[in-house]
């Protein structure tokens, strides 16, 4: 019996999935595997665990586990379900890589897919669970795909043992044939249940012209128009990255300032509101003129979300009660909007995955009275989170993604067009509580050129960590694994090769014919070293470093370096475009300070040769020494959230190392001293052992064939010159041999996370 509050009860009853409870539960009772499809917001994530709980699935020997591809979703969904069920987070809990609140009493456990994959290694049959729900399967994240492959084997094994496990796969789209029509995966096709979303119609407005690059400015103008001209209702803007999100938030706050009441908000809010007041006062001194921009009635195309989809018919403008304005807003270039107008307060909130959790949570709360909510988000708002009260979506049509070269692993961030499926997901965010509107800042012709769906993650990134984990599960012939979609053969081969080089896999005999040798290479068993490496929750290259660091008391340092390399983005980014001249000066000052600190953190003598890795070590050491406060981070250009994650990962890796070497007796020392000169030398060897395939040699003056090789390095895999990134402390020193954490391609191929090494 669940004791829900009347408000929650009422909100639940509005969800269409509630009417399907019986059908869903019958299907689950009668089938070991069930697929549930339903639009984002239909209630899958919050309600299905509750159905199972109420049907008694947790009462005897086993709990309900739910996996999410994103940490944000695991945390916020566990909180929401606990609240709906009126249960403590001791019972409805979450576990993500760095933290969790799981207890002995936990009955419903939300976790990231990576966490469950690690659990399979410890307990292949997942005996602790009575039900496993794989959520957001449509996102096709790499770990989700692998879990589905593994569970396809675990479910029958549990059946045989007489301890049946239920598997529920949930997807926001109907595109599930990679799971259902794949007989290697599921010999018996699982039933697919469709939950009708009570999706209100969303009118889609395409731009006639597609802005060439300034989609951010176009977003700004569109939000201004919506806010000035259209009836109440929240606005959700999709942009591609954190810097863009912040800069649009600033512009919008400036254009539509509001005075927060003094009781609301933390320190940060106060600071923001002081700033807003200051800007507001300044703006009042100027002439206040807010004339409505002229609308061009012929300027836009209007097309329903899914052409030909009867469920989501195009709605006509007069469906909107009390609306007497044209909802087709036009792509005006009017400058009017830049003028501040405090009579129309807009409550602007950023949302992206690196944002501090308490700030992320703000988007779920109602905006202050008399204001309109405007959330400026990256892709995180596309499917995993439902923001209440959104009526207007502004979609720039782009997404920032990391692209990898399949063989070399060289990566680059690129802003690309989204898929049609994503565009429709984004539009759907507008129709949750009433009919809505989606403004696409691109033309319908451009939309027609989008790919239909984005490719599964597993086909697009290096897979060495995945292969190591699979080998640790004794899956030797990875090629025979029932992947929903297999990774490309060359990515598999590159991964096995790397793992053999690191010593994680047993090398195949070099006898026999070439063909046999190659085949053997693709089915090497794991080595004892590989087993140890697989217990560390970090990339294989870093795991190798940990495995070597028992010597000369290097472990605390390696753990710290590996944690910092895994968390990434330790330092604040000051190269972003500034909103004002004043800010430009401020950013420059902060950057100068950071560069100065990095020199200090890099240390002296042979410590310096460790390069960027020593900077990471020094930064973490200094930060912890000072108690790891937000103030210290702010003053020294460190990202506070990253520092907290590094602290947690250090704790976790320390525990993992202690459990492998029981006599190591390691602990996380907040007053860690810098390494000695000798230790720094050992550390460089350890780093070389892990990053051996990331070795680069400086091209000598006498070898210079071409100017493009000036100050360049040569690597084994790439024909093109690579360079030390300007942000590296070794940028000017140009050591003869270096290893790098990664190569990122921007204007050139740049090495990041660089250390000097002396190869044998
Ligand atoms: P799905 O998993 O199908 O996308 P959810 O179960 O996440 O749907 O959400 C169902 C409904 O619950 C949403 O439409 C929203 O109205 C409500 N909801 C979800 N999370 C919250 C929250 N944190 N605060 C308020 N309402 C929420
Ligand atoms: Mg969901």
Mean pLDDT: 85
* Helix percentage: 25-40%
General form: globular
Q: Which runs of at least 5 residues are low in confidence (pLDDT < 50)? A: 261-277, 279-326, 333-337
Which cofactor or ligand species appear?
Answer: adenosine-5'-diphosphate, magnesium ion
Number of helices: 25
Strand order within the widest beta sheet: 3-4-2-5-6-1-7
Structural class: alpha/beta
Number of strands: 21
- The fraction of residues in strands falls at 15-25%
Task: Explain what the structure shows.
With about 750 residues, the protein is of the alpha/beta class. It contains 25 helices and 21 strands. The strands form four sheets. The chain has a seven-stranded parallel sheet, sandwiched between helices. Helix 11 (about 355-360) links the parallel strand 11 and strand 12. Helix 8 (about 215-230) packs parallel to helix 9 (about 240-255), helix 17 (about 530-535) crosses helix 18 and helix 19 (about 555-565) packs across helix 24. The longest helix is centred in the C-terminal third of the chain and has 21 residues, at about 580-600. The relative contact order is 0.08. Bound molecules: adenosine-5'-diphosphate (ADP) and magnesium ion (MG). Magnesium ion (MG) binds near residues 44, 45 and 135.
């Amino acid at each position: 019996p669940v004791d829900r509050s009347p408000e929650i009860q009422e909100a639940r009853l509005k969800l269409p999935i509630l009417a399907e409870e019986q059908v869903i539960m019958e299907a689950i009772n009668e089938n070991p595997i069930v697929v549930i499809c339903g639009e984002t917001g239909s209630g899958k994530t919050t309600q299905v665990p509750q159905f199972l709980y109420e049907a008694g699935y947790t009462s005897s020997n086993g709990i309900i586990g739910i996996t999410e591809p994103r940490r944000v979703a695991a945390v916020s969904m566990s909180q929401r379900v606990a609240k709906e069920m009126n249960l403590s987070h001791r019972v409805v809990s979450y576990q993500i890589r760095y933290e969790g609140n799981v207890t002995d009493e936990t009955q419903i456990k939300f976790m990231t897919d990576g966490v469950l994959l690690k659990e399979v290694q410890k307990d292949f049959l997942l005996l602790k669970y009575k039900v496993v729900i794989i959520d957001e399967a449509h996102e096709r994240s790499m770990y989700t795909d692998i879990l589905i492959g593994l569970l396809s084997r675990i479910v029958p094994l549990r059946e045989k043992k007489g301890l049946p496990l239920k598997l529920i796969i949930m997807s926001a789209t109907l595109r599930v044939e990679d799971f259902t029509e794949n007989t290697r995966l599921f010999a018996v096709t699982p039933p697919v249940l469709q939950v009708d979303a009570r999706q209100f119609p969303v009118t889609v407005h395409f731009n006639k012209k597609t802005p060439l690059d300034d989609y951010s400015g176009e977003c700004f103008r569109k939000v201004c128009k919506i806010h000035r001209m259209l009836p109440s209702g929240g606005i959700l803007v999709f942009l591609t990255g954190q810097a863009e999100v912040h800069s649009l938030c600033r512009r919008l706050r400036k254009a539509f300032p509001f005075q927060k009441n003094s009781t609301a908000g933390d320190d940060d809010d106060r600071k923001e509101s002081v700033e807003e007041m200051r800007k507001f006062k300044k703006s009042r001194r100027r002439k206040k003129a807010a004339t409505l921009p002229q609308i061009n009635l012929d300027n836009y195309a209007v097309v329903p979300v899914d052409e030909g989809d009867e469920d989501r018919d195009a709605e006509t403008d007069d469906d909107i009660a009390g609306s007497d304005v044209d909802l087709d807003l036009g792509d005006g270039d009017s400058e009017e909007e830049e003028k501040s107008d405090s009579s129309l307060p807009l409550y602007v909130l950023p949302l992206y995955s690196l944002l501090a959790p308490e700030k992320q949570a703000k988007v779920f709360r109602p905006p202050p009275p008399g204001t309109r909510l405007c959330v400026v988000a990256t892709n995180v708002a596309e499917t995993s989170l439902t923001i209440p009260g959104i009526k207007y979506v502004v979609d720039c049509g782009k997404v920032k993604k990391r692209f990898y070269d399949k063989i070399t692993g060289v990566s680059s961030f690129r802003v690309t067009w989204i898929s049609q499926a994503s565009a429709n997901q984004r539009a759907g965010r507008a129709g949750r509580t009433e009919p809505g509107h989606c403004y696409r800042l691109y033309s319908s012709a451009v939309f027609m050129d989008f790919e239909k769906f984005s490719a599964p993650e597993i086909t697009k990134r290096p897979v060495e960590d995945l292969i190591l984990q699979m080998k640790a599960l004794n899956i030797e012939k990875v090629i025979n694994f029932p992947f929903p979609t297999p990774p490309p053969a060359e990515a598999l081969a590159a991964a096995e090769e790397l793992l053999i080089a690191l010593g994680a896999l047993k090398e195949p005999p070099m006898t026999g014919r070439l063909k046999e040798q190659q085949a053997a290479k693709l089915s090497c068993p794991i080595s004892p070293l590989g087993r140890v490496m697989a217990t560390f929750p970090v990339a294989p290259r870093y795991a190798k470093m940990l495995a070597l660091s028992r010597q000369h008391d290097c472990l605390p340092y390696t753990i710290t370096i590996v944690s910092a390399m895994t968390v990434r983005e330790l330092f604040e980014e000051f190269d972003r475009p500034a909103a004002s001249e004043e800010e430009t000066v401020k950013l420059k000052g902060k950057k100068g300070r950071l560069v100065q600190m990095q020199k200090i953190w890099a240390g002296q003598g042979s410590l310096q040769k460790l390069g960027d890795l020593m900077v990471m070590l020094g930064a973490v050491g200094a930060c912890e020494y000072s108690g790891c406060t937000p103030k210290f981070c702010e003053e020294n250009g460190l990202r506070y959230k990253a520092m907290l994650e590094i602290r947690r990962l250090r704790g976790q890796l320390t525990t993992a190392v202690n459990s492998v070497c029981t006599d190591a007796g390691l602990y996380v020392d907040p007053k860690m001293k810098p390494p000695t000169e000798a230790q720094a030398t050992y550390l460089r060897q350890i780093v070389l052992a892990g990053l051996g395939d990331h070795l680069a040699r400086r091209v000598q003056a006498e070898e210079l064939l071409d100017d493009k090789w000036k100050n360049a390095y040569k690597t084994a895999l790439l024909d093109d010159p690579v360079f030390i990134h300007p942000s590296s402390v070794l940028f000017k020193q140009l050591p003869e041999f270096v290893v790098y954490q990664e190569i990122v391609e921007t204007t050139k191929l740049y090495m990041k996370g660089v250390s000097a090494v002396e190869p044998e």
